[in-house]
Amino acid sequence: MNSIIQVQGIHHITLNGANREISINFWQNILGMKFIFEQPNLDNLRINHLYFDSGDGTTITVFTDEKINQKKSKLKNLCGSVHHIAFSVSQSTIRIAEENLKSNGFPNTGIKDRGFMDSLYFREPLGLLIELSCYKFKPPFGHSYSDVLQKAHSLRIKRGGLNIQDQDVSLAIRELKNK
After folding, report:
1. Is 74 helix (H, G, I), strand (E, B) or coil?
2. N or C: less crowded end of the chain, CB within 10 Å?
């Protein structure tokens, strides 16, 4: 008997939000995730459950409670807690996100080069750290981002690098294409 449970991706992520208006304004009007529907939280009917399309067929859902006061604060990074959530965006979107976020009242880090991807960090209305990220490459036909990253990691280790860099990704893509 095989004891491994084979997951096939993230189905949804559910966050504790503030009220309905703040949640819809942020997830739909700032991040552009279409508000799909709402219904009561079936485990606690006094809490509302909002569903947003995250753009790739998965959803972000938010529990809201009109009695909760919004308190934006940096959340503590405790063992077992969520550090941040990263959303995939295009190179074009990340290039304009810094100014768009600022003009909507969301200070951010600006774009950070992570070697194989670019990242931009900011906090949502209740303090959860959000990352917008985009790969700086496209995998060769028949391969996934994970395939490229796994190969690039082994090349990085071989060259003794601190992190995956453009040269590792480029060589990994070439090697995967030639398999």
Report:
1. coil
2. N
Residue at token pair 């969301």? 106
For the chain, percent of residues with pLDDT exceeding 90 = 75
Distance of CA 156 to the CA centre of its chain: 24
Report whether 131 contacts 87 (CB < 8 A).
yes
- Cβ atoms within 10 Å, residue 46: 9
> Is the pTM for the entire model greater than 0.90?
no
Mean pLDDT of 70-75: 64
Measured CA to CA in angstroms, residue 116 lies from 24, 27, 37, 40, 92 at distances of 32, 27, 36, 41, 16
The residues that bridge with 28 in the sheet, in sequence order, are none
Amino acid, res. 87 = F
Cα–Cα distance measured from residue 101 to residue 107, given in angstroms and rounded to the nearest whole number: 7
How far is residue 161's CA from residue 76's CA, in Å, rounded to a whole number?
Answer: 31
